[in-house]
Every structure is written in C-alpha cells, then in structure tokens.
Design goal:
Shape: globular
Largest sheet: 5 strands, antiparallel
Number of strands: 5
Strand content: 15-25%
Distance between the termini: 35 Å
Mean pLDDT: 78
Low-confidence stretches: 90-98
Helix content: 25-40%
Strand order of the largest sheet: 3-4-2-1-5
Structural class: alpha+beta
Order of helices and strands: HEHHEHEEE
C-alpha cells in the first residue's frame, strides 16, 4: 500500500488547480477547507502528524503555516508522505489507499 501511495503522489505532482490533497486511508476528513481552518491549529497542521497533506501555496499562507512544509511541486507545499501502517479500526489490515482532492469553487480565488 505504501508503494501505491508513493505512486499516487507522483501522479498528483503532475496536476494543479487543487487547494488541498492527501493520499491514504479515508483522506476526505482532512480535506474540507472549513475543517482545516477551524478544527486544526497551525501547530497541529505543522507538526507532521498529517503526513502527506499537500496544500496550495495560497492555502498554506492563509493558514499561517511556516517552513515546516516543504515544496511538493511549484505552487504546492506538503508534509512528506511516510507510508501506510496497519490501523486498529481495520483489524490490522492496511485498507484501501485513496486519493482525495479539494478544489475551490470556480469563483473563489
């Protein structure tokens, strides 16, 4: 599963136009822009616990995050992906690696 995750990030690096992205077990919970802004402090977003989180430069700046994120590709920063580990809620199985993207509505900057 980890290798598949790395391959999905390699594919993601070819795209632009998204605001936030994450590959992993149920990534959707990390991609709602309102949740990122209200449920996570800048310290929590910066400490690396959401590894694999890719943010546009604009959202990175809007959230007030520092240099803890590194360049993913031009226009995007991320906490590098560390792979998947078995999770208790899956009975120790890795589950399905998924890709999630959050786009801004066309009329939003």
């Amino acid at each position: 599963m980890t290798e598949l995750g790395h391959q999905l990030y390699t594919l993601l690096a070819r795209f632009d136009g998204y605001v936030a992205a994450k590959v992993g077990w149920n990534p959707e919970g990390f991609l709602e822009l309102s949740d990122l802004k209200s449920d996570w402090t800048p310290d929590e977003l910066s400490d690396g616990s959401i590894h694999g989180l890719v943010l546009s430069e604009a959202l990175h700046a809007e959230l007030g995050l520092g240099d803890d994120y590194v360049t993913f590709r031009p226009g995007y920063r991320w906490v590098p992906y560390r792979g998947e580990k078995p999770r208790p809620e899956t009975g120790g199985r890795l589950g399905t690696v998924q890709a999630g993207l959050e786009r801004r509505a066309p009329d939003q900057p």
